[in-house]
Amino acid sequence: MSRFLGGRRAARAAGAVSAVLLALTGVVVGTAVPATAAPAVAVRAALPDDGGLNPGDILTGHNFIMQLDGQSVEYIAEVSGLDPDNHTVTLSRGLFRSPIVQRWIDDAIAGREGRLKNMTIGICDYAGNIVKRYNFGGAFVEKIVLDNATHEPSILTVRYFTFNIG
Asked: What is the pTM of this model?
């Protein structure tokens, strides 16, 4: 039964999208449509500059960005396991991996001085703007999980000394 209802919802959504597109091109439902396409200028003018995304749209692409000492360094695919009692957070890295983060991981594993960073995880909106920040002071990589295919760190457990939401 739910599959049937989902089909109805999808059909209604497709119908609504079709109606909007027809309205943008100036076509009235029930009239004959000329064989020529709508001018590209009219279609381009109807689209917002941000690729069609509007406030309130669901988050797309990269939802989280990592900053180390105030510098944006890498998009994060998933943030989980925030544990204020044990001062840890788990981060799943995205496909594009920064050499700055790799150096931070290497410093932490080796116990070097540069291992402690002020890390911020920003939650991004539909346009990539940070709308909420989670600040972790004195953060360092405590544990890594390697990706089976690339043998690069893909999941990081980060320990921190201070935490606040900004």
From this structure: 0.62
